[in-house]
Specification:
alpha/beta, Rossmann fold, five-stranded parallel beta sheet, 11 helices, 20 strands, HAD-SF_hydro_IIA, Phosphoglycolate phosphatase, phosphatase activity, hydrolase, PGP_euk
């Protein structure tokens, strides 16, 4: 990607930038945690931002939990959070129907995270869970092709993550959506979940696209990269988009969300988007609203020192603020990716070849300089 980094001229530049930020919006999975594993120093980072007077919000595309259930998870993982700071797609889906005076039933492809949020605003939904799947097509057709199998009171289809998704559910959703007055809502369109290098865990987007294709309808999408989550927060908080930072691990949802809403953006590499993908992008593929010389991300299971450039670099630890890196005189086609976690204050001399006792510092930092083509 051309002109990827934006450099900070001196160690005070990042602090100066934060002085112009009133609120930080975090994606959750892949940024603050992966599954039930907290990424190192994530709770401390959130706490530090609060101590600096910043508002903090948690913008998750995950529809499998209610906001109350997310709050329990935040507390169990030792994050400071309040219910009002959590913006989930299941909550937004229920709110969308409520504010449109919806008085029918919803057919939900999803989990109790969605149906509980609907129940909280007095909206009825059909039972969820696995459908009974026939072993042959003749039996399936006999069970499903009778129109009386569809509930005439259904007026909305909500598609979220559902590991019980089946052809039977696709049939029902598309059939309900044949009525042009039936509301079509997707919680999010994430293609996959964070996983290992050898596996792909299909996300809600794969289910949504199946329903879209069958129904020939476009849904109202509650989650990032669409504006609905930001517009919801701005109802209750006087936020200037030019003074909000979005932190995420997925470029085509989190970072694009920030761009769509006019926010500053910070991509971390602890989740979905990889450095290799960044290298392969061209300027026309993706646009970072805020091009940075670094991406702060959290401790990885394996440390990997790769020095691929002779460019002069200065790494700075600043104890009064979030750790950051300063890139000195680096051309625009060089991106610096920094992993900063538990550390003690020390200095690394400018110039890549001037590190003292490289192995001594392996515990404290990981860095790599990559040419971005």
């Amino acid at each position: 990607m051309n002109n990827l980094p934006m450099t900070f001229p001196d160690p005070s530049a990042f602090e100066a930038f934060l002085k112009n930020i009133d609120a930080v919006m975090f994606d959750c999975d892949g940024v603050l945690w992966v599954g039930m594993k907290v990424l190192p120093n994530a709770p401390e980072l959130v706490k530090k931002l609060r101590s600096m007077g910043k508002k903090v919000f948690f913008m998750t595309n995950n529809s499998t939990k209610t906001r109350d259930e997310f709050l329990v998870k935040f507390i169990s993982l030792e994050f400071e959070a309040t219910l009002e700071e959590i913006v989930s797609t299941s909550f937004l889906a229920a709110l969308h129907l409520k504010e449109n005076n919806f008085n029918k039933k919803a057919y939900v492809i999803g989990t109790p995270g969605v149906t509980k949020e609907l129940q909280a605003v007095n909206i009825k939904s059909l039972p969820i869970g696995p459908d009974i799947v026939a072993t042959d097509m003749v039996t399936w057709a006999a069970d499903h092709l009778d129109k009386t199998s569809l509930d005439p009171d259904v007026g909305a289809v909500i598609v979220g993550f559902d590991h019980h998704f089946s052809y039977s559910k696709l049939f029902k959703a598309a059939s309900y959506l044949k009525d042009p007055n039936c509301i079509f809502i997707a919680t999010n369109t994430d293609e996959s979940f964070p996983s290992g290098e050898k596996m792909v865990i299909p996300g809600t987007g794969s289910i949504v696209n199946s329903v879209k294709t069958a129904a020939q309808r476009e849904p109202v999408v509650m989650g990032k990269p669409h504006r609905i989550p930001f517009d919801y927060v701005r109802r209750f908080h006087n936020l200037d988009s030019n003074r909000v930072l979005m932190v995420g691990d997925r470029a085509n949802t989190d970072i694009l969300f920030g761009t769509n809403c006019g926010l500053h953006t910070l991509l971390v590499l602890s989740g979905v988007t990889t450095l290799q993908e960044i290298q392969e992008w061209s300027a026309s593929d993706f646009h970072f609203d805020w091009r940075m010389s670094f991406s702060i991300f959290f401790k990885q299971p394996k440390l990997d020192f790769r020095i691929l450039s002779e460019m002069p670099i200065e790494i700075t630890f600043h104890t009064s603020c979030v750790p950051f890196a300063v890139v000195m005189e680096v051309p625009s086609n060089i991106a610096l990716i920094v992993d900063l976690h538990s550390f003690t204050q020390h200095e690394l001399l400018p110039g890549i070849r001037n590190f003292k006792s490289l192995l001594k510092y392996r515990r404290y930092l990981q860095f790599s300089v990559q040419s971005v083509k």
